[in-house]
Design a protein that fits this description.
single chain, 260 residues, mainly alpha, Serine Threonine Protein Phosphatase 5, Tetratricopeptide repeat, 3 domains, 0% strand, TPR-like_helical_dom_sf, ISR_Activator, HCP-like protein, Sel1-like
Length: 260
Amino acid sequence: MKVKQHVIDYLNNHNVNSKEIYNWLLNNQNNSESIFLLGYFNYLGIETISDLEKAFNLFINASKQDHTLAQYFVGKCYQFGNGITKNEKLAFEYYEKVSSKDYASGQFKLGWFYDIGISVNKDLKMAVYWYEKAANNGHLKAMHNLGLSYKNGDGVDKNNQKAFELFKQSAEGGHSDGITMLAYCYDSGTGINIDKQKAVELYQKAANLGHKVGQYNLAIIYEEGEGIEKDLYKAIYWYEQSAKQGHQNAQTRLKELKKN
């Protein structure tokens, strides 16, 4: 799990033994921060077997002391049924709590709930409102989703230039969805002049990050030879990478190519 590895790497880089930290947390459950962190270690299974139920209870305890991250993780546990019965309505309420404290990930979640209509009536204007809040607070996925709203005219007037700028911001932060959509803009001339070479570079970047749509689009470009030298072997390779991740169009195209 990426987050787990990130935490372990951070501890190692700072010459802190994660086992020592875990033991220290066990013996110092006297403030919301250490309660949350012990929950986080249990959530990810760092120096212990992952125990989502225990993690949830620790998050609840810390959240009662108004710990923002703990409240966010309580929301996540309710959303996905981690360590507790799934309850999207309660998840929404916890995301509301942290959003009122200007916590970007919570604001993004509210946008997503309104966008899809999870536990609330679907409301694209409210989705845009919360995506914008989260994007302004630096949330890269929110920038991408807000860009889609502007591209498609969902809950806001269609504006390709604005969509392009948002995808660009998300991409500059290294978000693979943002990189893929920025590539799409250069590929299709959405909010910017067509630049096939730039599109190829960005699709390649997204593909290398494991983005299945980026991989699929890169495969198409290699197959058709647009902005790059035609290369059927590379096309098949990237169709395969995308297909492995469940991209249906990639799976279909791969079957067709292998027939020939």
